[in-house]
Amino acid sequence: MGKEKTHINIVVIGHVDSGKSTTTGHLIYKLGGIDKRVIERFEKEAAEMNKRSFKYAWVLDKLKAERERGITIDIALWKFETTKYYCTVIDAPGHRDFIKNMITGTSQADCAVLIIDSTTGGFEAGISKDGQTREHALLAFTLGVKQMICCCNKMDATTPKYSKARYEEIVKEVSSYLKKVGYKPLRLPLQDVYKIGGIGTVPVGRVETGVIKPGMVVTFGPTGLTTEVKSVEMHHESLLEALPGDNVGFNVKNVAVKDLKRGFVASNSKDDPAKEAANFTSQVIIMNHPGQIGNGYAPVLDCHTSHIAVKFAELVTKIDRRSGKELEALPKFLKNGDAGIVKMIPTKPMVVETFATYPPLGRFAVRDMRQTVAVGVIKGVEKKDPTGAKVTKAAIKKK
């Protein structure tokens, strides 16, 4: 017996009439999941009701009652298989009162397919504040679906047909919304690095954003070292992928233990890889300092797993903690209770991100005299491109 195929559940989501059922029905039909006679019967019934395009959608509508109303209600289950997976499609309905169905159905899904109506007006309705493209994407994310495929449907009905400009406009808009929802690139700050006999180098840490999986080519910031992930483990079990919140160990190829340290950050080399911060601007609140803090102050910053001395290069403004309004430009010092915007320069290479893009890597505590002196969030980062970073053979092969 060969290795059993992995089961995955796919939920299909999107705005009303974006073409979820039709697309899914067509896919399952093409993959031989439906008898040809059945589709011919559907075709005839659809023509009789003047809804010719519904024939594929009916593949998914098991309930006769739904057919007459022309909308999908209950979550219908259909199966097909690929070379690697057994797939079950959960067709989630698009009408407003069906959100609760979606909540019961989506939560068992491993992956979501978001169908987008590309027609003029159709896309805008879905992505608008009240549209279901937004709502479904947010729901899927909240319910733990961290992988999404986006499909631009009805491209034959754009003006002109199959308009590249329209496609690019939709990709840009949807990408920026999904990023806001939380489908972010990988960030995994290392807590430790082990050398394990017979396996090799195993960095350990918690996935803060994104996913990590075997076969992925990762770049470690701040050095830019790039290599392939051989395997990912959690609690001594092999994982096909690890999600945010998972504490994992992962085995990397052709990398010595000394090349990685606590505080380094693993990222996907193809998706906004982590880089060294040349300097960054933060909003800081002084909580517990006996004196005054001025330019040149160099305490230790605890940010994610890194623990590095950082110089307060310039106090840019003093601000009101409550309103955020500027009280004074270029103040000489900050003292207890004050808040300010500060430009900071790390004394050693380190990776930080803005709080807006990667929250876990964008907040920090300032430690001095064995206590927390201040806390802050990072507003902006100027990054350095790595020079002469090592790219292992395994990573080059993958490219």
UniProtKB/TrEMBL annotation:
<protein>
    <recommendedName>
        <fullName>Elongation factor 1-alpha</fullName>
    </recommendedName>
</protein>
<dbReference type="InterPro" id="IPR000795">
    <property type="entry name" value="T_Tr_GTP-bd_dom"/>
</dbReference>
<dbReference type="Pfam" id="PF00009">
    <property type="entry name" value="GTP_EFTU"/>
</dbReference>
<keyword id="KW-0488">Methylation</keyword>
<dbReference type="GO" id="GO:0003746">
    <property type="term" value="F:translation elongation factor activity"/>
</dbReference>
<dbReference type="GO" id="GO:0003729">
    <property type="term" value="F:mRNA binding"/>
</dbReference>
<dbReference type="Pfam" id="PF22594">
    <property type="entry name" value="GTP-eEF1A_C"/>
</dbReference>
<dbReference type="InterPro" id="IPR027417">
    <property type="entry name" value="P-loop_NTPase"/>
</dbReference>
<keyword id="KW-0648">Protein biosynthesis</keyword>
<dbReference type="GO" id="GO:0003924">
    <property type="term" value="F:GTPase activity"/>
</dbReference>
<dbReference type="InterPro" id="IPR050100">
    <property type="entry name" value="TRAFAC_GTPase_members"/>
</dbReference>
<comment type="similarity">
    <text>Belongs to the TRAFAC class translation factor GTPase superfamily. Classic translation factor GTPase family. EF-Tu/EF-1A subfamily.</text>
</comment>
<dbReference type="InterPro" id="IPR054696">
    <property type="entry name" value="GTP-eEF1A_C"/>
</dbReference>
<feature type="domain" description="Tr-type G">
    <location>
        <begin position="5"/>
        <end position="244"/>
    </location>
</feature>
<dbReference type="GO" id="GO:0005525">
    <property type="term" value="F:GTP binding"/>
</dbReference>
<dbReference type="InterPro" id="IPR009000">
    <property type="entry name" value="Transl_B-barrel_sf"/>
</dbReference>
<dbReference type="InterPro" id="IPR004161">
    <property type="entry name" value="EFTu-like_2"/>
</dbReference>
<keyword id="KW-0963">Cytoplasm</keyword>
<keyword id="KW-0597">Phosphoprotein</keyword>
<dbReference type="GO" id="GO:0005737">
    <property type="term" value="C:cytoplasm"/>
</dbReference>
<keyword id="KW-0251">Elongation factor</keyword>
<keyword id="KW-0547">Nucleotide-binding</keyword>
<dbReference type="Pfam" id="PF03144">
    <property type="entry name" value="GTP_EFTU_D2"/>
</dbReference>
<dbReference type="InterPro" id="IPR031157">
    <property type="entry name" value="G_TR_CS"/>
</dbReference>
<keyword id="KW-0342">GTP-binding</keyword>
<dbReference type="InterPro" id="IPR009001">
    <property type="entry name" value="Transl_elong_EF1A/Init_IF2_C"/>
</dbReference>
<comment type="function">
    <text>This protein promotes the GTP-dependent binding of aminoacyl-tRNA to the A-site of ribosomes during protein biosynthesis.</text>
</comment>
